Amino acid sequence: MERKSADRNARRKPSGAAVIRPELTTALFRALFEEWAESGYAALSLERVAARAGAGKAAIYRRWPSKLEFVCQAIQGVGITLSDFSDHGSLGADISAYLRTTRVAFRHPLIRKIIPDVVAERIRTPEVAEMLDSLTAARRQLGKRMLERAIGRNELQPALDKELALDLLISALYIRMIVHSKNTTMAEIHRLAIAIEAAIKAC
Predict the structure, then answer these.
(1) Could you tell me if 144 and 162 are in contact, meaning their C-beta atoms sit under 8 angstroms apart?
(2) CATH (residue range 17-63)
């Protein structure tokens, strides 16, 4: 009897806090971005987000204590991966890879709708601004490593203005694709990479 009882206890599911399922977390992030693209941050409804993900609102609050924390983790989870900062052997190749990957991200219909709203919310909400500043700092640090590799290859001068160079790296593509909602061909990406490389070398 004691052995059977022990076996039943071993098979019994643990009670208490619900298990956090990674697949539901992923579904909640996806639903968040879909809802955000439709409604904007200010009108973002966690009830509708949960419903899109096939869950209850409690599933969100088991993971994040507030809408802001939910949004921050979602943005931080994708923000670094939107661009390629890896080593491709030369400054020109690094810039081209960065632009190609960023182009793919900017072409995504959800991202094209969400980014302008994120920028606007940054002005309205200090907590969002703080989160975006942290994410931007992390991305720019990766960009600086790319520039430092080019300095190490003697492609750029050690006195390079890295902050200006990083602004040049993203600004033209952002204005074209996000501000003006224009598509960019791979031929245009190639020409843009050449122009940006020349501009950075002049910094």
Answers:
(1) yes
(2) 1.10.10.60
